Task: structure prediction
Amino acid sequence: MATKHENGTVLVRQTQKLKPPSMYQVYLLNDDYTPMEFVVAIIQEYFNKDRENATQIMLMVHRDGKGMCGVYPKDIASTKVELVLTHARKAGHPLQCVMEEA
Ligand code: TYC
Result:
């Protein structure tokens, strides 16, 4: 819709073009070396799950190779990936954590 003013200015109403920001799923990947107990602690600490829920997610990763820990905006997802990887490397474990656009 366009409005013409006497001074010659034409104002054009913009249709809404902004999409809500994409969300990202954060996954843990299985490996043969990271202790189960360490993975449960990581899920509790960084993904705010209780022990029971964290254990279920860990077992899903162990069984299926991959498990979703949460869905977040991009910057929060990438921060969580970095924190998990840093924590795992410091502890000497090869645990992998990745994010995918939801
Ligand atoms: N597979 C590992 C073991 O048997 C446990 C494990 C679970 C490792 C989940 C990584 O993301 C992971 N010790």
Remarks:
- The chain has one domain: 20-101.
- The mean pLDDT is 94.
- Residues 20-101 form a domain with the Ribosomal Protein L30; Chain: A, fold (CATH 3.30.1390.10).
